[in-house]
Design brief:
Elements (H helix, E strand, L loop, with lengths): L2 H7 L6 H18 L10 H13 L11 E6 L7 H7 L3 E7 L2 H13 L5 E5 L2 H8 L3 E7 L4 H8 L3 E12 L2 H14 L2 E10 L6 E9 L11 H6 L3
Parallel strand pairs: 1-2, 1-4, 2-3, 4-5
Antiparallel strand pairs: 5-7, 6-7
Helix pairs in contact: 7-8
Length: 232
Amino acid sequence: MDFKSELLKLNIKATDSILDRFSKYYDRLVTVNEYMNLTAITERDEVYNKHFLDSLLITKAIDVNEHISLCDVGSGAGFPSIPLAIVDPNCEVTIIDALNKRINFLNELIEYLELPNAKAYHKRAEEFAKDKRESFDVVTARAVARLNLLSELCLPLVKLGGRFIAMKGQGGASELAEASKAITTLGGKVIKTIELELPDEAGKREIIIIEKVKPTPAKYPRAFAKIKERPL
């Protein structure tokens, strides 16, 4: 895979500065991964394709020239938020994750890559919603949970008129059918699903775009144990 060419296909200008940050990101990721479980994928081309490029497919659903606030729920090793922050300085990125050691890694990474538009917080989504309810233009999540659970974690954080963008692998359509009641209950409306394919037969991806058309009822989100026990 030619990463630079793939960025151009996404209308991302692959400047030396951007490419240098991705190189540093890769080096830091595999180094820290030796003593912290961040990713099972460590080979350079695979990381660039299945993590970096896969994360940047979100640019098919947002305008990188528009100033937006984005919250990435359960970011893990920084996907899709850090790649997006690298290529889109107009995007004000907030990262939340329940595991403090991952947040420490991300804040060190943000400083190392000199990304003033990104911040990471040790928070669970249902706790974060108490202070930041309906605060973000876009909320996204990649490989966190099934959509019926994920909707309750993410939609309460989305502004009225904003979007929840769920990044899924193949099979997103079945999750969407399962989550239709939850999405409606939480104030969302499905706009469309974008189907894409990564280079080198790395797999199909589905980006589900949900607009926030009504305020989320105040009783949501519930505690995560209740969300898991009784999904909407």
